[in-house]
Amino acid sequence: MNFVCSRRALLHATTATGALVWLGVAIPTRAAAPASNAPGAVGRNRVPLAPQPFQLLPTGAVKPAGWLKRQLAIQARGMGGRLDETWPDVGPNSGWLGGTGESWERGPYFLDGLLPLAWQLDDAALKAKAQRFIDWTLQSAKPDGMFGPRSNDDWWPRMVMLKVLTQYHELTGDPRVIPLMTNYFVHQLGALPARPLKDWGRFRWQDQLVSVVWLYNRTGDARLLELAALLKQQGFDWQALFADYPYRTKTTKASIGLDKPDVAGEVPQGLKDPALAVHGVNNAQGLKASPVWSVISGDAADRQAVHRQLATLDRYHGLPIGIYSADEHLAGRSPSQGVELCAIVEAMYSLEHALAITGDAALGDRIERIAYNALPATFTDDMWAHQYDQQPNQVQCSRAKGPWTTNGPDSNLFGLEPHFGCCTANFHQGWPKLTTSLWMASAEDGLAAAIYAPCEVHTQVRGVAVQLRESTDYPFRNTIVIAVEPQRPVKFPIQLRIPAWAETAIIAVNGLPQPAARAGSFARLDREWRRGDRIEIAFVSTPRAVPGPDGETIFEQGPLVFALPIEERWSKLRQRGLTADWEVRPAGTWAYAAMRSSPIERVERPVGPVPFSRRDPPVVLVTSLRPVGNWSMTDGAADPVPTQPIIAGAAKRLALLPYGAAKLRVTAFPTGQI
């Protein structure tokens, strides 16, 4: 292959310890690992990349079943599959289809979820939609290696499209993908010194690093390691930010320079970094920065830095749904603050990679808490409308000033593109990427159940075709059955994540009990697997009233957070093509206090066509709550949770729903005294 650009700053030295050095970054060498360009192949990290406990299976190896397949089908029938039919930004005039329309991030964002969704559902119409974007992109490459719309040369949107191309190659093996990526990366290696990363690309460099590592594992081209080091050098240092974290309170516009925009509405140059450093979506993407870089550096400190980031964000900005407040910038711990939908799906994607790289079971717990609470909460049941911001204590969704840090009054409306359209384009990756990450390949040539949901897995283990069928209503139930169907008998380990919340984990293989497994770890079953083998798992947990960091009470069981539903009154604001914009106002009482000593009863119902349904929830918790007389709304949002609630009535037995089911809700309650 002829490359149009030569490498800059080639290999400087080989140290006495065998470490290679690119741009001053020492990268220790290791034994070679096989790589394959075949679709569906499970890769391993090549020399000199660090080994990792797990590898994501190729896109398409895991397919949804049960309630998860129904949820993906809802997405396909809603905006997830038909957005291009009603929103011009990803319609026929998109710049990513050769048109004169939007030519920045929205086409790639849309495709990043549409592509895996189409193949996971084996939907011919969705595949055809995705293929049009793919074909145009692959045909758009210029002789110098650049690709994409010529009207926009920003590095950032191409980082997203590269993620799309890696998935597409895993699904199809299309021979056009690797040459395009190689030529583009060579072009970028030559261009970055004079045109360095800036703004969004500078803060999101780690998203491209994922694609660089992916390609290196398939080609072994050393220039990719040089490019990785250059991206790190020019990118924002997330690890340094959290070493002595300065952003410990709710962001104000003045504190990050957003109170004095220039005439074009942009933040003045020189004031951008503070705003971008506390930007919620940037932080979500930044969660993967240190783990992914650790694959290059081999440094254990890099690999573990994600835990410091999470702990710090929890401490100063944490919400009870597994993620931090960010509406649109970090906003403190009040449950009336919001979190942006883009931040939710990007945090999930970052943590899925971090889990594979670190092997830490706690990250699986975190992913489930976000995915099974925050993700479904921000959509209507038919996924034809979504919010920009959601709030744990969300008592009204209306055009109001709200408690937002930097967002506008439309932020928690349900609609086509409330406040801003980035989430309209980007939400699509949430459920499909979660599906891809349910099972992973292990470093010892086995498989690992990383996240639990009903699914089927088709892969190869030690040269043998293996199918797994995971049957479960998790997270609504805590029992799981895994049927193991190898093409012929084969010995390999299966690892099962044991959540930290599990009071007991009972595992049996073909009816025979297995050794007790420790919560917060992976249980290991290493045996010769034969067709018809069956793994049964039961996690035991009791419903809990948990104290929050500021004295409030949160109800939870297993991965689910529960909330008090408020009677809803929906009003259409305007029609938006195939969808509409909606306000939701309370039509009932919401100000209640929790009594932690009150008994909690669990009531189970079948999981219906809409898994996270307010009308027919698959599980509820029933407990006693008491009305509060000193809790009201300001600017369309619930006031901060009273630390000394005034009880204003007798206790009532009320049902709490899974958080994702109730669109108006109270999640963090004042704590009353008996």
Note the beta-strand portion. 15-25%
Radius of gyration: 25 Å
Biggest sheet statistics: 8 strands, antiparallel
In terms of per-residue confidence, which ranges show pLDDT below 50 for 5 or more consecutive residues? 1-35, 263-271
Write down the overall mean pLDDT: 92
Shape: globular
By helix and strand content, what is the structural category?
A: alpha+beta
Distance between the termini: 76 Å
Number of helices: 18
The count of β-strands is 29
Q: In which range does the helix fraction lie?
A: 25-40%
What does this protein structure show overall?
- By secondary structure, this protein is an alpha+beta fold.
- The protein contains 18 helices and 29 strands.
- Strands 18, 19, 20, 23, 24, 25, 28 and 29 form an 8-stranded antiparallel β-sheet that branches. Strands 5-10-11-12-17-14-15 form a 7-stranded antiparallel β-sheet.
- β11 (464-472) and β12 form a beta hairpin.
- α3 (106-120) runs parallel beside α5 (155-172), α13 packs antiparallel against α14 (300-317) and α15 packs antiparallel against α16.
- The longest helix has 18 residues, at 155-172.
- The N and C termini lie far apart (76 Å).
- The model is unreliable at 1-35 and 263-271 (pLDDT under 50).
